[in-house]
Every structure is written in C-alpha cells, then in structure tokens.
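Sequence decides. Our protein:
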Amino acid sequence: LLAAKKEIVRKSGVLEFSEASTSLDDVGGLDVLKAWLARKRRAFSDEARAFGIDVPKGALIVGIPGSGKTLCGKAMSAAWGMPLVRMDFARLLGSLVGESEGKLLQAIKTVESVAPCVVLIDEIEKSVAGAGSDLSGVSTRMLGTLLQWLNDKTSPVFVLATANQIESLPPELLRKGRFDELWFVDLPNLVERQAIFATHLRKRRRDPTGFDLKVLAEQSNNLVGAEIEQVVIEGLGAAFDESRELTQADLERCMERAREIWEQLQYPALT
C-alpha cells in the first residue's frame, strides 16, 4: 500500500514523497509541542469520530531558522505511521493562465487520495507573501484555494506548515479553523540544549554520559538545534581526521567557531 502511495505521489509531478526515518525521540527539546503532536495521533481514530471529534486539520509552526520545525514534521510522520508528502508551491507555478491554480487543485486531490498522510509545506510565507499585491493575481487565487481547502477539508490529511517570518503571513491564514494550533519555536533553553546535544551524540553512536552536557549547553547559548548538530558533526570530523575518539575539547572548539559565526550574523529576531 505504501509503495502504491509513493507511485501516486511520484506521478503527480508536483509533490514529493519523503521517507520518514526520524522519531519524536530524536527531536531534542520542544517537549510541549511533541506532547501535543502525540495526543493528536489518537484524534485520527474511529473512536475519536464516534466521540464527536473532527479530523485534525494541521499546525503552523513559526520560529527561528534551524530550530527544528521541519524535523518535527518528519518525526511526527514516522511516529504516526503516515507517509510524509512535501508540497512545494514553486513547483506548482505555471506560465499559462489558470495553470498554477489547476496544479494546486490536482495536488490537493492527490494528497487526499493517499490519505491518511502528513503534508509538509515548508516556509509557507514564501509561497503566500505576495497575495494581494501581485499584478497577475496568481498568488491571491492560489492562497484562496489553499485557505478554502484548509477550512473545509474532512479527509485525514494533517497539514504541517512552517514559517520563519510570521509578519509575512496573511492574517486570514492565521485564524482558528485553518489550523488546529499555531506554535512559536524560540531558541532552546539550557535544558533543551542539553537534550539536543545528547540526541545528536546518541544518533552518532556516542554515549552522552561521557560528556559534560551542562557545560556544552552553557557555552551554546543563542545557538539553535541545527547549529548544535553541526558542532557535533564537525567535532567528529576533527577527531576522525586525527584517528582518535571524540572529546569534550573537540566540541568546545567547534562551538567557539559556531558562536563567532553567530555573532557576525546576529539573527534579526534577536536584534
């Protein structure tokens, strides 16, 4: 059945089937969000329908780049045992009048045909930011089609949208009824940074108890999850090049370089 769904998505030409190999346990921190996603899984059951609960619509996760928004979607798909389908609006755009809207409608029909599934729309603000201001009206019409589907859909399709800049999103996308919940993902705190380090060390077959995670977490203030992962990756690379085991000092040196880069970039959300 999964192979058949993959083939349907592949033939659509506008959607991408993504293999989900990450569990929610692989996501460091974000405990409240992960707990909410775990509870939503039961809402897809026949028991929930009999109890009067509607099929979950989806969630919009907004936050700083690299904070684990997309990773949550992949992990949720694996945890729920549902295929993950990526919808990229750039692939829906066509040169002919009405072609883009037609591709979007076809994409919607396709994801509903492979339901239950999770649909991931990454950085949705880039797809709908021009609605209302583009001369052709394509973005406006596509946004209208998407909003109507989000509002009216009853099929077991969970739409997980991510965004880096909430101010670029149209207000009508943010109101209740389009999504079940709107989440903001901030910089990880001290405890969450420890969990993120532990997660990526275990992922690469290293025992987290062999490292002082508290010190690493204290030194990684203002770093997001993706940057912490890169610290672990670079530390392993340095140790491998010298034919030795990974050490605390390797991670601290890589972290210092990461912090120097962060200070040069200065995320807009923090200035």
In short: The chain has a mean pLDDT of 84. The longest strand covers residues 157-163.
